[in-house]
Every structure is written in C-alpha cells, then in structure tokens.
Known about the structure:
The chain has six helices and nine strands; from the N terminus they run αβαααβαβαββββββ. The protein is α+β, with helices and mostly antiparallel strands. It has a single domain, classed as C8orf32 fold, CATH 3.10.620. It has a seven-stranded antiparallel β-sheet. Strands 2-3 form a two-stranded parallel ribbon. A hairpin with a 4-residue loop joins strand 4 and strand 5. Helix 4 crosses helix 6. The radius of gyration is 16 Å and the shape is globular.
Amino acid sequence: MLFLSDAAPYERRASLPIAIVVAAFAIVAGFVPAAAEDRPSDPFGEFTTELNKDAPLAKTWELLRDKMLIEKGYFHRCLESKACPSMSRLMQTLDEIRQYHGKALLGHLNLSVNQMVKPAPGDWTTPLEAITMKNGDCKAYSIAKYAGVQELGLPADHVRLVIVHNRRRSEDHMVVAVYQDGEWFILDNLTDVLARDSERTDYQPLAVLDYKGVRRYRSAFRVE
C-alpha cells in the first residue's frame, strides 16, 4: 500500500497501462460545482497549494480522470438502456445504498466497497477496473468510493481523494474524504467505521485530488 515516498514511484507506476474495463463502476464528474462560498476547504484543516501540472502525480491523475469520464459515459448508457446484465448487481447495490442518507449512506458505501474489493498490490485503477477485478490496493478502494459518492448524488465539491502518511504503519495511504453536515468524514479500506478527519491524528495529509486537480498540503514538501 506504500506509494508516496517521492515523485519517482508515481512516475514508474503510472507507466503501466490502465485497462478500460466496461463492466461495473462509474464516476459522475459532471456535477455542477457548488458556488465558491459553498465549497469547503480541504480536509484535515491544513492549507493546500496547487501542485505543478507537470509533476508526475498531477499527470497521473489527469490521465485517470480522462479514463473515468469514458466509464461515466458507458455506465449511464447502461442505466438508460438496461442492456448490461453484468452490471445488475452493482446497480442493485447502489439502489440499496440510496435508501440511506447522511452518515448512514457514507457508512454503507464504505462497507460495500470494502467487501467488493480484496486487498492486493496494485496500480492506479479506474473504478470499473477496481470493481471488476475485485482486488487492489488503497487507491483502488478509494477511487471506487470517490466515484460512488458522486454517483449517489453528493456534489463533486464535497468529495476529495486524500493521500496521507499513516504514522502507525509508517507507510503512505489513500482515503476518501466526504463533507457532510459541516464536517469531513473519512472512508477508509482499513476500517468499516467512519471517522472525522480531526479524529485521524495518525494520518498526516500529503496531497488532495479532485476534479480541480491536485494540491499538496504545505507541510508535505516531498510531494512533487
């Protein structure tokens, strides 16, 4: 699950091809952004600054977002046509999660993805690939949840992918942060229990990713 010790590992791992798998999950990146005053600041209560667009991490995320948009189009064509039987179980799961609201919805999404994907070494994957292959590392879990949160109707401005350093394990890790009722909640493949960002004192935030791009936390000087 280690993947952020410096810029070079991102560049090496991003060089592997990411398959476009058309059988499971999708991202809704087309939500209308919230008004500027409604967009919350990044989680973990620290300042962030935009990462150089030429940095390996920024390039990797841009490429992955393009692939996720392709999946978005496929997924919604399947919803409209009802002609994708291989996706019926996923659609049923999403419909079940939609019965909940607020923290309960987030908790059920976190649990569902944690059960769908088995932990295994992995590269950057699209949501479809993560769910179809049924295995991956923290990036696979997090990207699937990032897509799922938006598919379930939460605005794009209220969800972030966050790269953190797990002090307890001495390794880098990725989680999803979702803004709900004025607080950031963390969706994590290491636990089925939701926690507020302020409660995760064992996590040092390094970088944050969303539809706007990549930003690094000012305390994370090694993220390039």
